[in-house]
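Q: What does the predicted 3D structure of Rab-GAP TBC domain-containing protein look like?
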Amino acid sequence: MTENELKFDDMSLLESKRQEYTIRISLEIKPEQDSDTSGSEYEETSKMTELAPTVSPDEDWQLVSSVESIKTLINIPNYYEMIMFKLNRQLKQDVKNSSKPLKEKLDTDWEFWALIITDFRKVIQTDYENFRIHLSKGVPPSLRGMLWQLFSDAANDCLEEKYRKLLNEPSPHEKLIQRDLPRTFPKIDYFNTKEGQEKLFHVIKAYSLFDEQVGYCQGIHFLVGCLLLHMPEEAAFCVLVQMMTKYGLREQFTPKMDKLHERMFQFEQLLSIHLPQVHRHLDIQGVLPSMYASQWFMTLFAYRCPLDLVFGVFDVLLVEGADKMLNFALALIKKNEQIILSLEFESLLEFFNGHVFDVYKKNSNGFIEDAYGFDIPSRLLQKLSKRYSAQAAQQERLKCIEDDMRRENAELNEQYKSLRCAYKTLDVNYQNTVQELTQIKILETILNEENQKLKSELSATRCGILKIERGSEYQKELDTLANANAQLVHTNSELQDRLTELETMMVELKLKHAEIENENKMIKKRYLLKII
Protein backbone atom coordinates (compact mmCIF):
# COMPACT_ATOMS: atom_id res chain seq x y z
CA MET A 1 0.00 0.00 0.00
CA THR A 2 1.36 3.40 -0.98
CA GLU A 3 1.94 6.33 1.35
CA ASN A 4 -0.89 8.27 -0.31
CA GLU A 5 -3.28 5.40 0.24
CA LEU A 6 -2.24 5.26 3.90
CA LYS A 7 -2.90 8.97 4.29
CA PHE A 8 -6.28 8.61 2.61
CA ASP A 9 -7.30 5.79 4.96
CA ASP A 10 -6.05 7.72 8.00
CA MET A 11 -7.99 10.79 6.96
CA SER A 12 -11.13 8.73 6.47
CA LEU A 13 -10.73 7.34 9.97
CA LEU A 14 -10.18 10.82 11.35
CA GLU A 15 -13.25 12.04 9.46
CA SER A 16 -15.44 9.38 11.07
CA LYS A 17 -14.03 10.18 14.52
CA ARG A 18 -14.45 13.91 13.98
CA GLN A 19 -18.07 13.44 12.95
CA GLU A 20 -18.70 11.65 16.23
CA TYR A 21 -17.59 14.71 18.21
CA THR A 22 -19.48 17.31 16.18
CA ILE A 23 -22.26 19.06 18.09
CA ARG A 24 -24.66 21.31 16.20
CA ILE A 25 -25.36 24.86 17.25
CA SER A 26 -29.06 25.62 17.38
CA LEU A 27 -30.85 28.92 17.76
CA GLU A 28 -34.20 27.26 18.36
CA ILE A 29 -35.48 28.83 21.55
CA LYS A 30 -38.93 28.25 22.89
CA PRO A 31 -41.06 31.46 22.82
CA GLU A 32 -42.20 33.05 26.05
CA GLN A 33 -45.62 32.14 27.45
CA ASP A 34 -48.15 34.96 27.15
CA SER A 35 -50.29 34.38 30.18
CA ASP A 36 -48.66 31.88 32.53
CA THR A 37 -46.95 33.80 35.26
CA SER A 38 -47.47 31.22 37.98
CA GLY A 39 -44.06 29.65 37.60
CA SER A 40 -41.30 29.99 40.11
CA GLU A 41 -38.34 32.34 39.88
CA TYR A 42 -36.57 29.70 37.80
CA GLU A 43 -38.71 30.71 34.82
CA GLU A 44 -37.00 34.10 34.82
CA THR A 45 -33.87 32.28 33.70
CA SER A 46 -35.38 32.02 30.23
CA LYS A 47 -35.48 35.79 29.85
CA MET A 48 -31.70 35.91 30.19
CA THR A 49 -31.04 33.02 27.80
CA GLU A 50 -33.40 33.70 24.92
CA LEU A 51 -31.08 36.30 23.34
CA ALA A 52 -28.05 34.04 23.52
CA PRO A 53 -27.30 31.27 21.02
CA THR A 54 -27.88 27.88 22.61
CA VAL A 55 -26.65 24.46 21.69
CA SER A 56 -28.82 21.50 20.86
CA PRO A 57 -27.28 18.07 21.39
CA ASP A 58 -26.52 15.99 18.34
CA GLU A 59 -29.09 13.32 17.57
CA ASP A 60 -26.21 10.85 17.19
CA TRP A 61 -24.84 11.41 20.70
CA GLN A 62 -24.84 7.70 21.33
CA LEU A 63 -21.98 7.45 18.83
CA VAL A 64 -19.81 10.03 20.58
CA SER A 65 -16.60 8.52 21.90
CA SER A 66 -14.75 9.50 25.06
CA VAL A 67 -11.51 11.42 25.25
CA GLU A 68 -9.73 8.09 25.43
CA SER A 69 -10.71 7.58 21.78
CA ILE A 70 -8.95 10.82 20.90
CA LYS A 71 -5.80 9.70 22.65
CA THR A 72 -5.72 6.51 20.60
CA LEU A 73 -5.80 8.59 17.41
CA ILE A 74 -2.70 10.47 18.45
CA ASN A 75 -0.63 7.42 17.63
CA ILE A 76 -1.79 7.47 13.98
CA PRO A 77 1.02 8.63 11.62
CA ASN A 78 0.77 12.27 10.56
CA TYR A 79 -2.13 12.78 13.01
CA TYR A 80 -1.54 16.52 13.30
CA GLU A 81 -1.62 16.94 9.51
CA MET A 82 -4.76 14.83 9.24
CA ILE A 83 -6.74 16.77 11.83
CA MET A 84 -5.73 20.07 10.21
CA PHE A 85 -6.79 18.72 6.81
CA LYS A 86 -10.12 17.65 8.24
CA LEU A 87 -10.78 20.92 10.07
CA ASN A 88 -10.03 22.92 6.92
CA ARG A 89 -12.36 20.72 4.91
CA GLN A 90 -15.10 21.11 7.52
CA LEU A 91 -14.61 24.88 7.36
CA LYS A 92 -15.11 24.88 3.58
CA GLN A 93 -18.29 22.86 3.93
CA ASP A 94 -19.67 25.40 6.40
CA VAL A 95 -19.38 28.17 3.77
CA LYS A 96 -22.56 26.86 2.19
CA ASN A 97 -24.57 27.11 5.41
CA SER A 98 -24.42 30.57 6.99
CA SER A 99 -22.28 33.66 6.76
CA LYS A 100 -22.36 34.25 10.52
CA PRO A 101 -21.13 30.78 11.52
CA LEU A 102 -18.57 31.11 8.73
CA LYS A 103 -17.26 34.33 10.22
CA GLU A 104 -17.02 32.74 13.62
CA LYS A 105 -15.11 29.74 12.31
CA LEU A 106 -12.84 31.82 10.10
CA ASP A 107 -11.79 33.67 13.25
CA THR A 108 -11.00 30.38 14.97
CA ASP A 109 -7.42 29.17 15.03
CA TRP A 110 -8.16 25.55 14.16
CA GLU A 111 -4.46 24.73 14.01
CA PHE A 112 -4.01 25.76 17.63
CA TRP A 113 -7.06 23.83 18.85
CA ALA A 114 -5.88 20.79 16.95
CA LEU A 115 -2.60 21.11 18.84
CA ILE A 116 -4.55 21.34 22.11
CA ILE A 117 -6.38 18.12 21.29
CA THR A 118 -3.16 16.31 20.45
CA ASP A 119 -1.11 17.44 23.45
CA PHE A 120 -3.04 19.61 25.88
CA ARG A 121 -0.62 19.21 28.81
CA LYS A 122 2.41 20.18 26.77
CA VAL A 123 0.73 23.34 25.45
CA ILE A 124 -0.23 24.35 29.00
CA GLN A 125 3.35 23.93 30.17
CA THR A 126 5.12 25.55 27.23
CA ASP A 127 2.70 28.11 25.77
CA TYR A 128 0.24 28.94 28.54
CA GLU A 129 -0.13 32.65 27.71
CA ASN A 130 -1.03 31.89 24.11
CA PHE A 131 -3.51 29.28 25.32
CA ARG A 132 -5.11 31.84 27.65
CA ILE A 133 -5.45 34.29 24.74
CA HIS A 134 -7.22 31.65 22.64
CA LEU A 135 -9.38 30.68 25.61
CA SER A 136 -10.42 34.32 26.00
CA LYS A 137 -11.56 34.35 22.38
CA GLY A 138 -13.77 31.35 23.03
CA VAL A 139 -13.59 27.61 22.56
CA PRO A 140 -14.98 26.37 19.23
CA PRO A 141 -18.53 25.19 20.06
CA SER A 142 -18.14 22.01 18.02
CA LEU A 143 -15.10 21.02 20.09
CA ARG A 144 -16.36 22.22 23.46
CA GLY A 145 -17.71 18.92 24.78
CA MET A 146 -14.57 17.07 23.78
CA LEU A 147 -12.33 19.78 25.26
CA TRP A 148 -14.26 19.88 28.54
CA GLN A 149 -13.62 16.18 28.96
CA LEU A 150 -9.99 16.73 28.04
CA PHE A 151 -9.53 19.69 30.40
CA SER A 152 -11.12 17.85 33.34
CA ASP A 153 -9.40 14.53 32.60
CA ALA A 154 -12.82 12.92 32.91
CA ALA A 155 -12.33 9.84 30.73
CA ASN A 156 -12.97 6.88 33.03
CA ASP A 157 -14.42 3.60 31.77
CA CYS A 158 -14.92 2.30 35.32
CA LEU A 159 -16.87 5.41 36.26
CA GLU A 160 -19.03 5.11 33.15
CA GLU A 161 -19.77 1.49 34.08
CA LYS A 162 -20.61 2.62 37.61
CA TYR A 163 -22.98 5.19 36.13
CA ARG A 164 -24.83 2.55 34.11
CA LYS A 165 -25.26 0.43 37.24
CA LEU A 166 -26.53 3.37 39.28
CA LEU A 167 -29.27 3.99 36.72
CA ASN A 168 -30.92 0.75 37.84
CA GLU A 169 -31.00 1.72 41.52
CA PRO A 170 -33.74 3.82 43.18
CA SER A 171 -32.85 7.18 44.71
CA PRO A 172 -34.64 8.78 47.68
CA HIS A 173 -34.34 12.14 45.89
CA GLU A 174 -36.24 11.18 42.73
CA LYS A 175 -39.35 13.24 43.49
CA LEU A 176 -37.31 16.38 44.18
CA ILE A 177 -35.26 15.85 41.02
CA GLN A 178 -38.39 15.33 38.91
CA ARG A 179 -39.94 18.47 40.39
CA ASP A 180 -37.00 20.64 39.29
CA LEU A 181 -36.57 19.21 35.78
CA PRO A 182 -39.05 21.59 34.08
CA ARG A 183 -37.27 24.54 35.72
CA THR A 184 -33.93 23.75 34.08
CA PHE A 185 -33.44 25.97 31.00
CA PRO A 186 -37.18 25.96 30.09
CA LYS A 187 -36.57 27.93 26.88
CA ILE A 188 -34.22 25.33 25.43
CA ASP A 189 -36.15 22.89 23.25
CA TYR A 190 -33.96 19.93 24.12
CA PHE A 191 -34.87 20.05 27.81
CA ASN A 192 -38.56 20.21 26.95
CA THR A 193 -38.33 16.85 25.21
CA LYS A 194 -38.72 13.48 26.88
CA GLU A 195 -35.18 12.51 25.88
CA GLY A 196 -33.62 15.67 27.31
CA GLN A 197 -35.47 15.42 30.63
CA GLU A 198 -34.68 11.70 30.93
CA LYS A 199 -30.95 12.26 30.46
CA LEU A 200 -30.98 15.17 32.88
CA PHE A 201 -32.83 13.00 35.41
CA HIS A 202 -30.47 10.06 34.86
CA VAL A 203 -27.28 12.02 35.53
CA ILE A 204 -28.61 13.86 38.60
CA LYS A 205 -30.15 10.70 40.06
CA ALA A 206 -26.95 8.72 39.48
CA TYR A 207 -24.87 11.37 41.23
CA SER A 208 -27.28 11.46 44.19
CA LEU A 209 -26.54 7.74 44.63
CA PHE A 210 -22.83 8.08 43.87
CA ASP A 211 -22.34 10.73 46.57
CA GLU A 212 -24.95 10.11 49.25
CA GLN A 213 -23.66 12.88 51.51
CA VAL A 214 -24.42 15.45 48.83
CA GLY A 215 -27.46 13.60 47.53
CA TYR A 216 -29.43 16.19 45.59
CA CYS A 217 -29.09 19.93 45.95
CA GLN A 218 -30.73 22.62 43.83
CA GLY A 219 -28.15 24.06 41.49
CA ILE A 220 -26.71 20.72 40.36
CA HIS A 221 -29.31 20.46 37.60
CA PHE A 222 -27.95 23.65 35.99
CA LEU A 223 -24.42 22.21 35.91
CA VAL A 224 -25.65 18.93 34.44
CA GLY A 225 -27.81 20.76 31.90
CA CYS A 226 -24.80 22.66 30.55
CA LEU A 227 -22.78 19.45 30.30
CA LEU A 228 -25.55 17.54 28.51
CA LEU A 229 -25.72 20.24 25.84
CA HIS A 230 -22.21 19.24 24.79
CA MET A 231 -21.74 15.55 25.53
CA PRO A 232 -23.54 12.24 26.13
CA GLU A 233 -24.90 11.47 29.58
CA GLU A 234 -22.10 9.03 30.56
CA ALA A 235 -19.47 11.66 29.79
CA ALA A 236 -21.53 14.34 31.56
CA PHE A 237 -21.61 12.18 34.68
CA CYS A 238 -17.83 11.69 34.59
CA VAL A 239 -17.19 15.42 34.14
CA LEU A 240 -19.65 16.20 36.95
CA VAL A 241 -17.77 13.85 39.30
CA GLN A 242 -14.50 15.57 38.38
CA MET A 243 -16.02 19.00 38.95
CA MET A 244 -17.21 17.93 42.38
CA THR A 245 -13.98 16.23 43.46
CA LYS A 246 -11.00 17.52 41.48
CA TYR A 247 -12.35 21.08 41.25
CA GLY A 248 -13.67 21.15 44.83
CA LEU A 249 -17.29 22.02 44.07
CA ARG A 250 -18.58 19.19 46.24
CA GLU A 251 -18.33 21.18 49.48
CA GLN A 252 -20.64 23.78 47.94
CA PHE A 253 -23.44 21.22 47.85
CA THR A 254 -22.97 19.39 51.16
CA PRO A 255 -25.60 20.17 53.84
CA LYS A 256 -23.41 22.79 55.57
CA MET A 257 -22.22 24.32 52.25
CA ASP A 258 -18.87 25.15 53.85
CA LYS A 259 -17.09 25.93 50.58
CA LEU A 260 -19.89 28.20 49.40
CA HIS A 261 -19.72 30.24 52.62
CA GLU A 262 -15.93 30.40 52.32
CA ARG A 263 -16.15 31.57 48.70
CA MET A 264 -18.73 34.21 49.64
CA PHE A 265 -16.36 35.48 52.34
CA GLN A 266 -13.46 35.57 49.86
CA PHE A 267 -15.60 37.43 47.34
CA GLU A 268 -16.65 40.08 49.84
CA GLN A 269 -13.05 40.65 50.93
CA LEU A 270 -11.82 40.83 47.31
CA LEU A 271 -14.64 43.23 46.49
CA SER A 272 -13.48 45.54 49.28
CA ILE A 273 -9.90 45.35 47.92
CA HIS A 274 -10.52 45.75 44.18
CA LEU A 275 -13.77 47.76 44.18
CA PRO A 276 -13.92 49.54 47.55
CA GLN A 277 -16.44 52.15 46.42
CA VAL A 278 -18.90 49.52 45.21
CA HIS A 279 -18.34 47.46 48.35
CA ARG A 280 -19.03 50.47 50.55
CA HIS A 281 -22.16 51.38 48.59
CA LEU A 282 -23.57 47.84 48.79
CA ASP A 283 -22.75 47.72 52.49
CA ILE A 284 -24.58 51.01 53.12
CA GLN A 285 -27.59 49.77 51.16
CA GLY A 286 -27.59 46.52 53.14
CA VAL A 287 -27.08 44.32 50.07
CA LEU A 288 -25.02 41.31 51.12
CA PRO A 289 -23.17 39.03 48.67
CA SER A 290 -25.42 36.17 49.76
CA MET A 291 -28.36 38.06 48.24
CA TYR A 292 -26.99 37.92 44.70
CA ALA A 293 -23.67 36.06 44.37
CA SER A 294 -24.57 32.73 45.96
CA GLN A 295 -26.55 31.70 42.87
CA TRP A 296 -23.54 32.56 40.68
CA PHE A 297 -21.23 30.26 42.61
CA MET A 298 -23.80 27.47 43.10
CA THR A 299 -24.58 27.20 39.38
CA LEU A 300 -21.30 28.52 37.88
CA PHE A 301 -23.31 31.49 36.57
CA ALA A 302 -25.74 29.18 34.72
CA TYR A 303 -28.75 30.63 36.56
CA ARG A 304 -30.23 33.67 34.77
CA CYS A 305 -27.13 34.12 32.63
CA PRO A 306 -26.96 33.90 28.81
CA LEU A 307 -25.62 30.49 27.88
CA ASP A 308 -22.77 31.76 25.72
CA LEU A 309 -21.40 33.49 28.83
CA VAL A 310 -21.98 30.37 30.92
CA PHE A 311 -20.08 28.18 28.48
CA GLY A 312 -17.17 30.62 28.57
CA VAL A 313 -17.14 30.36 32.37
CA PHE A 314 -17.06 26.56 32.10
CA ASP A 315 -14.20 26.80 29.57
CA VAL A 316 -12.06 28.81 31.98
CA LEU A 317 -12.96 27.01 35.20
CA LEU A 318 -12.20 23.57 33.78
CA VAL A 319 -8.72 24.84 32.88
CA GLU A 320 -7.93 27.27 35.69
CA GLY A 321 -9.92 25.86 38.60
CA ALA A 322 -13.06 26.81 40.51
CA ASP A 323 -11.44 29.81 42.21
CA LYS A 324 -11.70 31.69 38.91
CA MET A 325 -15.38 32.12 39.72
CA LEU A 326 -14.24 34.99 41.92
CA ASN A 327 -12.62 36.66 38.89
CA PHE A 328 -15.86 36.42 36.92
CA ALA A 329 -17.89 37.78 39.83
CA LEU A 330 -15.53 40.75 40.22
CA ALA A 331 -15.54 41.36 36.47
CA LEU A 332 -19.33 41.42 36.47
CA ILE A 333 -19.44 43.91 39.34
CA LYS A 334 -16.77 46.15 37.80
CA LYS A 335 -18.50 46.17 34.41
CA ASN A 336 -21.71 47.34 36.11
CA GLU A 337 -19.98 49.63 38.62
CA GLN A 338 -21.63 52.90 37.59
CA ILE A 339 -25.10 51.36 37.44
CA ILE A 340 -24.67 49.73 40.86
CA LEU A 341 -23.52 52.99 42.44
CA SER A 342 -26.64 54.73 41.14
CA LEU A 343 -29.14 52.22 42.59
CA GLU A 344 -30.60 51.68 46.04
CA PHE A 345 -31.64 48.53 47.91
CA GLU A 346 -34.72 47.29 46.04
CA SER A 347 -33.46 48.45 42.65
CA LEU A 348 -30.11 46.74 43.33
CA LEU A 349 -31.77 43.41 44.08
CA GLU A 350 -33.92 43.71 40.98
CA PHE A 351 -30.86 44.59 38.90
CA PHE A 352 -28.79 41.67 40.20
CA ASN A 353 -31.67 39.27 39.61
CA GLY A 354 -32.47 40.37 36.08
CA HIS A 355 -30.11 42.70 34.24
CA VAL A 356 -26.60 42.33 35.60
CA PHE A 357 -25.50 40.25 32.58
CA ASP A 358 -26.87 42.67 29.97
CA VAL A 359 -23.49 44.41 29.60
CA TYR A 360 -22.03 41.27 28.00
CA LYS A 361 -24.90 40.38 25.66
CA LYS A 362 -23.05 41.67 22.62
CA ASN A 363 -19.56 40.73 23.79
CA SER A 364 -19.51 37.31 25.42
CA ASN A 365 -15.73 36.97 25.05
CA GLY A 366 -15.33 40.23 26.95
CA PHE A 367 -16.57 38.45 30.06
CA ILE A 368 -13.55 36.13 29.98
CA GLU A 369 -11.13 38.94 29.13
CA ASP A 370 -12.41 41.07 32.01
CA ALA A 371 -12.18 38.11 34.39
CA TYR A 372 -8.55 37.58 33.42
CA GLY A 373 -8.02 41.29 34.09
CA PHE A 374 -8.16 40.64 37.85
CA ASP A 375 -4.97 39.33 39.41
CA ILE A 376 -5.89 37.33 42.50
CA PRO A 377 -2.79 35.62 43.96
CA SER A 378 -3.32 32.13 45.33
CA ARG A 379 -1.56 33.22 48.54
CA LEU A 380 -4.23 35.86 49.08
CA LEU A 381 -6.98 33.28 48.60
CA GLN A 382 -5.25 30.95 51.05
CA LYS A 383 -4.93 33.80 53.54
CA LEU A 384 -8.61 34.65 53.16
CA SER A 385 -9.49 30.99 53.48
CA LYS A 386 -7.56 30.74 56.76
CA ARG A 387 -9.18 33.94 58.00
CA TYR A 388 -12.61 32.55 57.16
CA SER A 389 -11.79 29.26 58.89
CA ALA A 390 -10.71 31.17 62.01
CA GLN A 391 -13.87 33.27 61.99
CA ALA A 392 -16.04 30.23 61.31
CA ALA A 393 -14.37 28.37 64.18
CA GLN A 394 -14.91 31.37 66.46
CA GLN A 395 -18.54 31.58 65.42
CA GLU A 396 -18.91 27.85 66.01
CA ARG A 397 -17.44 28.23 69.50
CA LEU A 398 -19.76 31.13 70.25
CA LYS A 399 -22.65 29.11 68.90
CA CYS A 400 -21.73 26.20 71.18
CA ILE A 401 -21.53 28.57 74.17
CA GLU A 402 -24.86 30.10 73.20
CA ASP A 403 -26.41 26.65 72.82
CA ASP A 404 -25.06 25.62 76.23
CA MET A 405 -26.44 28.78 77.81
CA ARG A 406 -29.80 28.25 76.16
CA ARG A 407 -29.85 24.64 77.31
CA GLU A 408 -28.91 25.65 80.87
CA ASN A 409 -31.47 28.43 80.78
CA ALA A 410 -34.11 25.95 79.65
CA GLU A 411 -33.17 23.62 82.51
CA LEU A 412 -33.39 26.50 85.00
CA ASN A 413 -36.76 27.45 83.58
CA GLU A 414 -37.95 23.88 84.05
CA GLN A 415 -36.64 23.89 87.63
CA TYR A 416 -38.33 27.22 88.25
CA LYS A 417 -41.63 25.94 86.87
CA SER A 418 -41.33 22.76 88.94
CA LEU A 419 -40.58 24.69 92.13
CA ARG A 420 -43.36 27.13 91.41
CA CYS A 421 -45.78 24.24 90.95
CA ALA A 422 -44.55 22.67 94.21
CA TYR A 423 -44.91 26.04 95.94
CA LYS A 424 -48.49 26.37 94.74
CA THR A 425 -49.27 22.85 95.99
CA LEU A 426 -47.74 23.59 99.39
CA ASP A 427 -49.59 26.89 99.56
CA VAL A 428 -52.89 25.12 98.91
CA ASN A 429 -52.05 22.53 101.56
CA TYR A 430 -51.12 25.32 103.95
CA GLN A 431 -54.41 27.13 103.39
CA ASN A 432 -56.33 23.89 103.88
CA THR A 433 -54.44 23.21 107.11
CA VAL A 434 -55.12 26.72 108.41
CA GLN A 435 -58.80 26.30 107.62
CA GLU A 436 -58.90 22.90 109.31
CA LEU A 437 -57.09 24.30 112.36
CA THR A 438 -59.61 27.14 112.61
CA GLN A 439 -62.46 24.66 112.50
CA ILE A 440 -60.78 22.56 115.20
CA LYS A 441 -60.38 25.63 117.42
CA ILE A 442 -64.05 26.46 116.98
CA LEU A 443 -64.94 22.87 117.83
CA GLU A 444 -62.64 23.02 120.84
CA THR A 445 -64.46 26.13 122.10
CA ILE A 446 -67.81 24.41 121.69
CA LEU A 447 -66.56 21.32 123.51
CA ASN A 448 -65.13 23.45 126.31
CA GLU A 449 -68.49 25.11 126.73
CA GLU A 450 -70.22 21.74 126.79
CA ASN A 451 -67.60 20.51 129.26
CA GLN A 452 -68.29 23.45 131.55
CA LYS A 453 -71.97 22.80 131.22
CA LEU A 454 -71.46 19.17 132.10
CA LYS A 455 -69.30 20.12 135.05
CA SER A 456 -72.07 22.39 136.30
CA GLU A 457 -74.56 19.61 135.85
CA LEU A 458 -72.20 17.25 137.63
CA SER A 459 -71.93 19.64 140.58
CA ALA A 460 -75.69 19.95 140.70
CA THR A 461 -75.99 16.20 140.52
CA ARG A 462 -73.56 15.75 143.36
CA CYS A 463 -75.64 18.11 145.45
CA GLY A 464 -78.68 16.06 144.61
CA ILE A 465 -76.83 12.92 145.56
CA LEU A 466 -76.18 14.34 148.97
CA LYS A 467 -79.93 14.81 149.36
CA ILE A 468 -80.93 11.48 147.97
CA GLU A 469 -77.96 9.43 149.03
CA ARG A 470 -79.86 6.24 149.49
CA GLY A 471 -82.36 6.34 146.66
CA SER A 472 -81.88 3.67 143.95
CA GLU A 473 -83.04 5.92 141.22
CA TYR A 474 -80.56 8.56 142.36
CA GLN A 475 -77.79 5.95 142.28
CA LYS A 476 -78.67 4.91 138.71
CA GLU A 477 -78.76 8.50 137.59
CA LEU A 478 -75.43 9.12 139.28
CA ASP A 479 -73.88 6.13 137.50
CA THR A 480 -75.24 7.31 134.19
CA LEU A 481 -73.88 10.80 134.73
CA ALA A 482 -70.53 9.40 135.86
CA ASN A 483 -70.28 7.30 132.70
CA ALA A 484 -71.27 10.26 130.58
CA ASN A 485 -68.72 12.43 132.33
CA ALA A 486 -65.99 9.83 131.85
CA GLN A 487 -66.90 9.65 128.17
CA LEU A 488 -66.72 13.42 127.83
CA VAL A 489 -63.39 13.53 129.64
CA HIS A 490 -62.04 10.89 127.24
CA THR A 491 -63.36 12.79 124.22
CA ASN A 492 -61.89 16.02 125.55
CA SER A 493 -58.52 14.31 126.00
CA GLU A 494 -58.57 13.05 122.41
CA LEU A 495 -59.43 16.52 121.14
CA GLN A 496 -56.60 18.00 123.18
CA ASP A 497 -54.18 15.49 121.62
CA ARG A 498 -55.50 16.25 118.13
CA LEU A 499 -55.14 19.97 118.77
CA THR A 500 -51.55 19.52 119.93
CA GLU A 501 -50.78 17.42 116.80
CA LEU A 502 -52.32 20.02 114.50
CA GLU A 503 -50.42 22.83 116.16
CA THR A 504 -47.17 20.86 115.68
CA MET A 505 -48.08 20.26 112.01
CA MET A 506 -48.86 23.95 111.63
CA VAL A 507 -45.40 24.87 112.90
CA GLU A 508 -43.74 22.39 110.49
CA LEU A 509 -45.75 23.72 107.53
CA LYS A 510 -44.77 27.28 108.38
CA LEU A 511 -41.09 26.26 108.49
CA LYS A 512 -41.32 24.40 105.17
CA HIS A 513 -43.22 27.31 103.65
CA ALA A 514 -40.41 29.64 104.71
CA GLU A 515 -37.79 27.30 103.16
CA ILE A 516 -39.69 27.16 99.85
CA GLU A 517 -40.02 30.95 99.81
CA ASN A 518 -36.26 31.29 100.38
CA GLU A 519 -35.37 28.76 97.65
CA ASN A 520 -37.80 30.45 95.25
CA LYS A 521 -36.05 33.79 95.83
CA MET A 522 -32.65 32.18 95.11
CA ILE A 523 -33.90 30.65 91.83
CA LYS A 524 -35.33 34.01 90.72
CA LYS A 525 -32.02 35.68 91.54
CA ARG A 526 -30.04 33.09 89.49
CA TYR A 527 -32.50 33.39 86.60
CA LEU A 528 -32.15 37.17 86.52
CA LEU A 529 -28.34 36.87 86.59
CA LYS A 530 -28.46 34.48 83.60
CA ILE A 531 -30.65 36.85 81.61
CA ILE A 532 -28.31 39.76 82.33
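A (community wiki): The C-alpha coordinates above were generated from the sequence. The mean pLDDT is 79. The longest strand covers residues 25-26.
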